[in-house]
């Protein structure tokens, strides 16, 4: 099985195959002999090249959250499979509200060129403001909301073009 | 003993109060907004009463509905927790007018302490030092007063809180504008434009003393809490004892705290907040929080007391069962607040489904939380989802234990500050107990989580997970495949 | 500081030791029998080494394999826990001969205390009172000795334990038979037929003192534990302080405990067990347990110490970091042992799958367990599956808290003694602190769980569960039904 | 839906029907208005005639374990449905080993009449002895083990006839 994930911005590929009772995994040119020791619900103990690790995994659609040695890593699977939930997901080029709230500011217009990390929209809920920023440089293709509007979680706010 | 208490709150503090009541054999009633229908405090209570829509002003701040609910189910007392209505004097009065017990101080005490200018004056009269300042009413005199105090100065709203209506002014030229904008913000936020001046003490520390009064005129304190580790004016790590204090200073501040509480006839649990200048070791009264404090567990850890049980006893009219000299402490306690927020992105709240929430269990590790795996972290309320509290034999033992506890606090699905908290604990300034209120801002403005060499392991874990799931699916599919159920089923159905 | 420790044990004590090591930054290696391959201590350790088949003699008692394992993975020390090899002097010597640190006392001390007759003599020489008795070697003199002691007397095996080789004799006529059968049983069980006599004190209490010695000649004690609540000679509830002791008697027994430990050059954690006659308030040395004790957490709760960390420090050669007068206690602690057993059927073990194991989390409630939901409770090992420990402000607060904690200890799939423990806590004899070692036998021989009016609720719960599951199945079936996948699929496949 | 359970020796029948959003349950002549409030995995909060209860449920084949208000109640479903696990189960008239162990004593012979509660076989494991007793009065139809034999958990030891 070959799987592709994004971690932060980076695209990573892992090949994994059964090898008798165990597994063989390859990432770039790094090869790991993997042994699954225990697999209670959502927890997993495995050894990779004889080092033992306990990880906790949670899945939300195409997103995987992995807790390992005290760190949490978020991976997004990037193959063509339909997601198991079917909602909450949006294409790469649209930006959605990460929380329900009120749009207090729209900082860009359609056609604007934007930098990676540039603030596009400000949402407010309770006493907190949240800035929605551009995940990559590009051009604003569509602005789908206006100031003062109340939006739901997951609602698309802006469409970006590469 | 009370038979039934309504808890006018939500989240971890509601859960903590429910558990204390369960131990005491007191029945509990929870209230909940539409957003909280399935949440932990609702699941744990004996009864649960829907109180309105998610916005706090329509639910947890609806004192009238809450009192009505308490009466309708025969509760004898209301515990306000912290936040929401806990420092609302009118609510406290209304609860008492309705013939119920309010588990907290008198409305009278809350009002005196709620007005920061009045409180400053009262404290000075009671011999409690306050930050050098000016609380005159005439705008024209502010300039001269600021000159006398010496820059930088702080413009603060009389009825403010949470940093609103507050300005730091470094130069005399900026003062008029700062006063005007602070007044405007205060008017908007608190309905009162009154501001006053205080000297701004750079590199100061934030300490507080837990006080407790009863209805019989007794007030004692339960030592200090060091609360200097803050982000956006909110505490994230508290500890006790404070690395700054020696016994002499502790005694002086304790005596000042008791005097402050006595000045307002304080009853039940309260906290006197101080600013301490670590250079001069001078301390100044800042304000009083007229309620139980988020960080009360660290005081419980070192004193062995249960402050919520004590609140219930004292609210029922009992005398404090001990005197100041009976209160001793042992060990060193730390609390870390786990927030659903992103420390590498301005500490903005991160809301969503806590797909997994696993907390450590070990000797002298205490967890206070209002969520369990699968619970939603909602935008409507405070993003604090848990408190991890440890008691160590000494400070270094406590830090080590806290690091272990945080490493074993697994929250998946929403971004939290857990890794950040561990980084703060590991910082040399924190290590030598030299934290000041600007510590986080100065040392962690560029912080990002470091994931050394674990991304390969995460990939392997997820790939393994997919392999196992796929194998499981194949088996399940097979078992559900009607073609396999019976021979001969295939043709003709 | 040690870098890696092998834990030669299983279950909750292995888990507890692993967690202490994790806090200290010491790597841990677990060992496991085939029956324990997936168990909690194996999951938590950094490394895990299979050591043999399920029977203890083929795995957890295989000192040779364990030492070999420790050397092969570069562990510097072995912690034996309790039970298994923990009191085996030959194992302790072998570990040390292999150049490893044994986290426990010298083999020398274990041997002196392991021989009960020798220990009696040594204690008398050291001024520690022992139960009036007779340890002569000539059978013919037993009758005369028993007459002098006064009936009832206890015939005990010199190398015995767990009630084997022990007989209570009420009448002189029964003595010869009792001696003969005890000798036969002792020979079979322990390979040595030597027996001795002790006065049998009816209605006595069982108390013990936690002692700790270092390699520099210091020995101190950490107060007592009251262990009179027993079934089949096994403790099920322990508490500290003991309701029986006053400070004068506590001091005398503490001094005797330290003298007893010093008499055998005792190092590391140990326990001096006493019988106390509640009528006369006389105390008698019973035996020494030369290891950490199951019930050590209650001592930790009242003293604020971590005995396992202290064991590691002292075994590494460090001096005890405090003197007797530094040791203080606060509050009242109780431990309840949760056994997979049926208290209404002779306390027989009940083995099986712990389908669900949910433990309470609350301030001053500590859980020590080696199982999680889904784990097997195996026939091969001790049926104790968890310890629930609480610290209260006083005894009644602790009892109330323990009742709450047990009510919230949910173990489904294997029968446990949880309801029984709650019944014991609620008994008036326990309530007034008057428990004696025959308390359970006298008051609970006919005990059966009382399920008042809840069977209707259980029926409703299960019926609801079935309704919900059925509805879920219908949905799942539908989603897996290939007939629904596509129109036209039905005909011709 | 009508379900029959055994609790200890007693046979109990419950009828449960949906009633709008809620349920109506009947046991003998006692009627309960039941509302399911929450149903996280294995936990369940419901009110019966307005009294609120939190219960934990675990299922093992035909056995249900219910923790309610600090008590644990074991129920065995007694309908004709095939069990979901398919093993671990044995008919009413055969007695199986409740634990793996060694048979140290066989106390009855085929054909013996036995009382309810009478000890039939003694098993030993570790230092514990367990007595296997007759669940009801009857006659020993078959003895399937002999002294000294090592048996597995669930292995049938004795068959009883009514």
Overview in brief:
The complex is a heterotetramer, with two copies of chain A (162 residues) and two copies of chain B (493 residues). Chain A has 162 residues and is an all-beta fold.
Report on the biggest sheet of chain B.
8 strands, antiparallel
The structure class of chain B reads alpha+beta
Main sheet: strand order of chain B: 14-13-10-11-12-15-22-20
Structural class of chain A: mainly beta
The number of helical runs of chain B is: 17
User: What gross morphology of chain A would you assign?
Assistant: elongated
Mean pLDDT of chain A: 83
The parts of chain A where pLDDT drops under 50 for at least 5 residues are 80-91
Through-space gap between termini of chain B: 70 Å
Oligomer: heterotetramer
The chain pair forming the largest interface, with residue counts per chain, is: A-B, 51 and 45 residues
Rg of chain A, alpha carbons? 20 Å
Q: Uncertain segments of chain B of ≥5 residues (pLDDT<50)?
A: 478-493
3D architecture notes:
- The complex is a heterotetramer, with 2 copies of chain A (162 residues) and 2 copies of chain B (493 residues).
- Chain A has strands at 2-7, 10-19, 22-27, 30-38, 43-48, 51-60, 63-68, 71-77, 94-96, 101-106, 113-114, 119-125, 128-133, 138-143, 150-151, 156-161.
- Chain A has no helices and 16 strands.
- By secondary structure, chain A is mainly β.
- In chain A, β1 and β2 (10-19) form a beta hairpin.
- Chain A starts with a strand and ends with a strand.
- By secondary structure, chain B is of the alpha+beta class.
- Helix content of chain B is 35%, strand content 25%.
